[in-house]
Structures are given as structure tokens and as C-alpha cells.
Structure prediction request, 424 residues.
Amino acid sequence: MICLWGISQDIAYNDKENLFKNAYDMAYEGNHNSAKIALLEVLSKDEENLNARSLMASIYSWEGEFEKARDEFNKITSKVRDNRNVWISAIKNELYANNNATALGLINKALYYLKNDTEVERLKELVLERIENQKYPELGWFNQNSEIKRSSGANKPKEEKKEGDEVAKVIKPKTPLDKEELKNKVGIRNSFIIYDQRYDPMIYSSISLKHQTKYGSIIPRINYSNRLGRHGIQYDVSLYPKLAKKIYAFLNYGYSKASIYPSHKLAGDVYFSLPGAIELSGGGRYIIFDTRNVSVLTNSLGHYRGNYYFSLRSYITPRPNNLTKVSGNLLVRKYLKDGENYLGASFGMGYSPELRQLTAGDELLAETLLYIESQRLALEYQFTGKDSPNIYKTNIGVRRQELSYDTGNYFWAVSAGLTYSVKF
Prediction:
């Protein structure tokens, strides 16, 4: 009887091992539903099977069922306190779900039991930065949120094992969290504008390099335009320095010898974060031409509400004899899974060198086209690749603009553009 009992135990153990191996293989191939069925059978026979529960939690996390994943991870960490892989997977599950506060709580617990763990410390720095800057997803100097991506079910999981862990195998998807943050980005932009009368199509291109530091980001850029048979190049650089915990700035300088660009342009804004997810800014623009200089005062009011961002910006251009011109622009964005993925729309109207007849992004093209009345509507969509952090952005817009030589009469213009950015 003892021999028969021993044989039956071996058969049961082998059966559970085979079920888990099959579940592992199915998860590896992306067949999550079948893998979960097999894991449920394993757990029905052995609730203490940590390998099976870890794999089940990971599958829930990959599929975006973060609460179910949290429940499974909690069942493990409440009993096994020193398993490094399970703690890291549980923390990343909260980061995928954008539960920064919960992730920080898990990190503190993990560090209590694991002591000095370099990966957990790295995740702590990341989540603290996210909490501090979560109100600024559109800023160049903070893109950590974009590095936290939900992993698709088709991602190939990998096996990770550390000597001494009670759970021998923990499976998790490949994700940017598993590598160092990407701090550089090269962007290439091409766009064109088509007019319904008089003007030939205008072409605009640019190439930029963004480098992110702990103090902010630096973005040198080369702009090229071709219009009315003339072309030109402009060089500029933008800075986004972080001045204090809730204060940052935007600085820009541009230079060109081409007639379709100003000789020099300077821009600056200071942004303040206020309670209630409100953001205020104030600054100015100074544009230098061969024959005149133009000064513009600008300010903005922004508000973050859930996944939405609203920004209202005004431009005030002082002129002699009480002829000051005012214009405004309203921007609305809905952020999707992170700060690099969003849908947006903007509407602008009024008089301003920033809202002018012939434009390339926000660049002034010609001195003679200042103080022209216009109305414009633009749509934008930015998204990242499914299996890469590279960024794509498309935009399309329509503008009704006053003719510079015929006050009171207007023409129509349609613009479209595509930007591709590579992160490394």
C-alpha cells in the first residue's frame, strides 16, 4: 500500500508538472486563454503552486486585467516575501495600469524585504519622477510615462531565474521597463500647404535631435522651407529647463540668412503648476528682421482633467498709435495609453505674427505678412509603434486667411504633415 501511495503521488506530481509545462508553452506562443485554463486546473489541485500563480498573474497583466493580476500577485507576496521576480512583476503591473501611488507602496515593501535591489531602486526613481511630473505629459523634459507601455498579448515572454528564489520561473513580457530609459530622439518632419488661389504649394521639412537630461531637454533643429520659388534654411535650438519642483521653462533661439525666415528669433515662457491640475505660463517672442523688430507677449492657461489636456493661449502684439493686435489659440488633447499617444484639435483666430498667412509650424516666414487676420482649425494624431518606442505623428489643418494685398478678402489653405521620430 505504501508503494502504491508513493506511485500515485509521483503520477499526480508529474501530471501537475506537465500541465504547468503545457501552460507555459501556450503562454509562450501567445495562446493565453488555453494557458489560463491549464493553470486553473493546476491551482485547483495545488493552491500553493507559486509557479502557476505567478504565470497566471503575468498573463492577466499582459491582457490589461490589472486588478486580477494584482490579486494573484498579492496572494504570493503575502506568503513569500523575498522573491525578487514576483515583487518586480507586481510593481510593473501597477505601472502598466498607471497606478503610481500603488506602485510606490509596493516598491517600499519590496525594498524592506529585498534590501538594496538595483532594479527595484531604478523603478522607484522612475515612479517618483512620474508622480512629480504626471501633470506634464506633453513636455519634452518628461517622457518617462511614455516608457511605461502595456504589453500586448502577442509579445514573446521570457524566462527569468535567480538562484535562491522560491519561485523558479517567472514569465513576463518584453517592455521598455526592462531596459534603460531612452534619452535621445531623432525626428524628421515633412509637411506642405496648398492654397486655393495665387500662391504655389509650400513645402516644409525639418530634422531635430532631442537629448534628455535630469535638468531638462535640449533640442537642436534644422528647418527648411520652399515657397514662391525661393528656399531657405533656419537653425534653431530649444531648451526645456526644470527650474523647481513645479516650475519649468521654454527657451528658443533661431537664426537664418534666408529671406523667407527672420534673421533672429527669440522665445521664452515660464510655466507654473498650481493646485487643481492648473498650469499658468507667461512669456514673449522677439523677432528680428532687416528693417524692423517685432515683440509679442504671450500667456496661457492649461488644465488637466483625467486623460484630457486643455490649453488657451493668447498673443498680444503691441504697435504704435494704439493698434495693438490680439489673437488666441485653443488646444484640446486626449491622451491615450501614455504621454506619447494622443488625439488633438486646435482652433485659432485673430491677428498675430504667430498666426500668419504663410506658416511652417510656428515659424514666421516673411516680414511683409505680419498682422494678417486668420482663422484656423487643425487635427493631430500621435502614436507609438506596437513593438517599438518610435513615434509617428500626423496632422491636417485648414486655414482661412486675409490676403496681404487685399484687406477684407480671404483665401483658403489646406495643410498636412507627417513626423517620424526614432528613440534610442
